[in-house]
Amino acid sequence: xxxxxxxxxxxxxxxxxxxxxxxxxxxxxxxxxxxxxxxxxxxxxxxxxxxxxxxxxxxxxxxxxxxxxxxxxxxxxxxxxxxxxxxxxxxxxxxxxxxxxxxxxxxxxxxxxxxxxxxxxxxxxxxxxxxxxxxxxxxxxxxxxxxxxxxxxxxxxxxxxxxxxxxxxxxxxxxxxxxxxxxxxxxxxxxxxxxxxxxxxxxxxxxxxxxxxxxxxxxxxxxxxxxxxxxxxxxxxxxxxxxxxxxxxxxxxxxxxxxxxxxxxxxxxxxxxxxxxxxxxxxxxxxxxxxxxxxxxxxxxxxxxxxxxxxxxxxxxxxxxxxxxxxxxxxxxxxxxxxxxxxxxxxxxxxxxxxxxxxxxxxxxxxxxxxxxxxxxxxxxxxxxxxxxxxxxxxxxxxxxxxxxxx
Length: 407
What we know:
Elements: E1 2-9, H1 15-30, H2 39-43, E2 46-53, E3 61-68, H3 74-77, H4 83-91, H5 105-111, E4 116-124, H6 125-156, H7 177-181, H8 183-193, H9 219-228, H10 232-239, H11 249-273, H12 280-306, H13 311-322, E5 328-330, E6 335-339, E7 345-349, H14 350-369, H15 375-394, H16 401-406
Antiparallel strand pairs: 1-3, 1-4, 2-3, 5-6, 6-7
Helix pairs in contact: 1-4, 6-11, 6-12, 11-12, 13-15, 14-15
């Protein structure tokens, strides 16, 4: 493991001897069971990169140096602490693994106020390893959150294109200022990378859908839109406005519940993206927010699955698809030409068509909706297929004989 430092020193010293005087006692105390770690071995861990004086204050020095501790191999196998924890304990700044009364190399330097004015750390394998843990987590959290938000917006803002959601976020702008000014650049980016505006909104703006602040058009505005619209569809688009109260209640609750958890995650996200060591407080708040936010996302999808269309509604929809004029044609020789549910054009006898399409319906219900095609539902499908085919043959709905007898 390797860390690079810059120390500003108040006095002239022999840099290697000074650093060794701080590091070697810690090694003796913490790693005495690791075998032959003598003074020369520990000296080999220290590299002096530069040692220069300030022009105005000759006794004030900049000392750039690195500490690189090799893997001690077999000597470490019998030690109670693994290499990673032991080296971090020797070198690292205070963290969750260090109590206030514990010593480490960088703290020893920092506390030497007579000699050390300040100390900074640069390339740091310990922080990099933390980043490797946090970054995939943050990636997953943000992508899962975008999925839910796109779902909510598409569900509630039915007339809005998927790449024009930004106006629904209070005070939100695209993080890329150039894209804010260039709509064509936006659209090009979205097409090329399969994204929309939600991929470019600042993280903490994810929860501020502003529907409750949108204004309904006034009478004269409505009249103007009626006069200028070229079609009914265009007029409908122009007059369509959603307010917060129009949102699905569960969706509005989700947006409200996530608000308090976004800032801790964005803070950690910014530390990682800007290569800063997260504070212990930020780490703890991030862990709490991560658990809470992922729990809300899981609960959201669980609730949505409960409200999936029921089997009867799906059946009616599939019948409309199957018998759409463009998809189905009844031929004179008791055969049918149709586009099946896998979008393949086929031609077969009517009596072959029915079991074939029922099999596809069963597969679709199972894969897409998690429903099994029950015996009752299968019977209803057969009856509905017979009714539709009879209508096509005669031009009239098939009369239910049981209903006729009842009359």
